[in-house]
Amino acid sequence: xxxxxxxxxxxxxxxxxxxxxxxxxxxxxxxxxxxxxxxxxxxxxxxxxxxxxxxxxxxxxxxxxxxxxxxxxxxxxxxxxxxxxxxxxxxxxxxxxxxxxxxxxxxxxxxxx
Length: 113
Hints:
Layout: H1 2-23, E1 31-38, H2 47-55, E2 60-66, E3 71-77, H3 83-94, E4 98-105
Antiparallel strand pairs: 1-3, 1-4, 2-3
């Protein structure tokens, strides 16, 4: 009787341990680049403020402002924030009216070797 329970209990233990390990694996960032059109008027003097405030939003990794095309280009972690929520957050922290133009996968960095 004892022997007939050993194998099923061992198999159950292995399965439970495997499920435990997969449940606690860290989620890798899903880097995206969002292109947001600034619909409010702004000047080149506003660029530093836009970079600083947008850069403080959780999930944002890089911010570039294209003054000529009235665009904010944001590299962000899509596992942390959605592109639409990021647009709302940009409006909230910057007081500029923006709209989402496009979202693309962020290019992978290559080593310089």
